[in-house]
Design a protein that fits this description.
With 63 residues, this protein is an all-beta fold. It contains no helices and 3 strands. It has one domain. The radius of gyration is 18 Å and the shape is elongated.
């Protein structure tokens, strides 16, 4: 499990704060001639909460 602390950002996330957790599973998908994994299939789940964002609209989003 990896934990990420959110302490702000830009645009509508300027005053954001919170914590996100990632639980990831990686499975070897392709092996080289020596039997070493060289490519993985990964999947995971992100949980947590981000609060405090502003109401500022992203200029890239439409009305």
């Amino acid at each position: 499990m990896l934990a990420y602390q959110i302490t702000g950002g830009t645009g509508r996330f300027k005053n954001a704060f919170g914590t996100l957790e990632l639980i990831e599973t990686a499975v070897p998908e392709l092996l080289d001639v020596g039997g070493n994994a060289i490519h993985f299939a990964a999947s995971g789940v992100i949980t947590g909460e981000v609060s405090g964002g502003s109401e500022e609209q992203d200029p890239c989003e439409g009305d």
